[in-house]
Automatic annotation (TrEMBL):
The chain crosses the membrane at residues 6-26. It comes from Pseudoalteromonas tunicata D2. Residues 216-280 form the J domain. Regulatory DnaK co-chaperone. Direct interaction between DnaK and DjlA is needed for the induction of the wcaABCDE operon, involved in the synthesis of a colanic acid polysaccharide capsule, possibly through activation of the RcsB/RcsC phosphotransfer signaling pathway. The colanic acid capsule may help the bacterium survive conditions outside the host. Residues 1-4 are periplasmic. This is Co-chaperone protein DjlA. The lineage of its organism: Bacteria, Pseudomonadati, Pseudomonadota, Gammaproteobacteria, Alteromonadales. Keywords: Cell inner membrane, Cell membrane, Chaperone, Membrane, Transmembrane, Transmembrane helix. Gene3D superfamilies: DnaJ domain (1.10.287.110), TerB-like (1.10.3680.10).
Length: 280
């Protein structure tokens, strides 16, 4: 609004009514640009500190682990693989002491028969409305839990689809995210195989990338087999922007979950580097 007001005033001072009209138009364009950038970084989120941010991060933390527990229980009982996966996830976040206990309590709450799955997701959506990248990361984390054993059961998929719909994602976008994660899962398996063979980090990364075939790398970036270099680069930049840790934290991501965003960024980077070195 202020862009239009100031543009009109200054335009009138320098060019009378013709200048005012031109100033109004330029001010309108300025307002649109500012609003787009403002919304992109989370609106007024960057102006709030302390308690409000802490509450938002606490809600993300609780919802993340409680929904994970609910999905893990969807087949009747929580398997040892799911329990181990939850523990590994907590290790990755470097949760210890009280923070780890809170995560475990939330996970157990999600496993209970009276857990309000839909209501929990509804509240989560309301608090993080408009923060697409953060909501997408949340959904990716839930897919990670469901797919930790390499299999996605019908019950798990149904719950994930319900979560995606509640959070505002279309069925086609959910399928896109799911396909990307399945490729990411295979990529991580390959990297783990190389982890014990190479002490030098550079050699390890190089060999892990060599193990990736082109089809898998393209799937990690979410592009088709016939994608050209420009399309691959565009997809890479978009995904890197969506998973930038600092941006996600500014939108309400708990600091503990920064490592998750960093790992996803590393996977995206590795896939892109592979495709640059192995063009079609």
């Amino acid at each position: 609004m202020w862009g239009k007001v100031l543009g009109t005033i200054f335009g009138f001072l320098f060019g009378r009514w013709l200048g005012a009209i031109l100033g109004f138009y330029l001010g309108h364009m300025f307002d649109r640009s500012i609003k787009q950038n403002f919304d992109k970084v989370g609106g007024f989120q960057s102006l709030f500190k302390g308690e409000e941010v802490s509450e938002r991060q606490a809600l993300f933390f609780y919802t993340c682990f409680s929904v994970m527990g609910h999905i893990a229980k969807s087949n009747g009982r929580v398997s040892e693989i799911h329990i181990k996966a939850a523990g590994v996830f907590m290790d990755e976040m470097q949760l210890q002491g009280e923070s780890r206990q809170e995560a475990q309590d939330a996970f157990r709450a999600g496993k209970s028969n009276d857990f309000a799955y839909k209501e929990t997701l509804d509240e989560f959506k309301q608090r993080f409305r408009g923060r697409f990248d953060l909501l997408q990361l949340f959904l990716e984390i839930q897919i990670q839990m469901a797919f930790c054993d390499g299999v996605l059961s019908d019950n798990e998929k149904a719950l994930l689809q319900q979560a995606a719909k509640t959070l505002g994602f279309s069925s086609s976008h959910f399928a896109f995210i799911l396909k990307r994660y399945q490729a990411e899962f295979k990529f991580n398996q390959q990297r783990q195989q190389f982890h014990g063979k190479y002490n030098n980090q550079q050699r390890q990364t190089s060999n892990a990338q060599s193990a990736m075939d082109r089809e898998q790398a393209l799937a990690v970036l979410g592009v088709s087999q016939d994608a050209n270099a420009a399309e691959i680069k565009k997809a890479y930049r978009k995904l890197m922007g969506q998973h930038h840790p600092d941006k996600l934290v500014s939108q309400g991501l708990p600091q503990h979950l920064m490592e998750v965003a960093k790992r996803k960024s590393q996977d995206i980077q590795a896939a892109y580097e592979y495709l640059k070195k192995n063009p079609a």
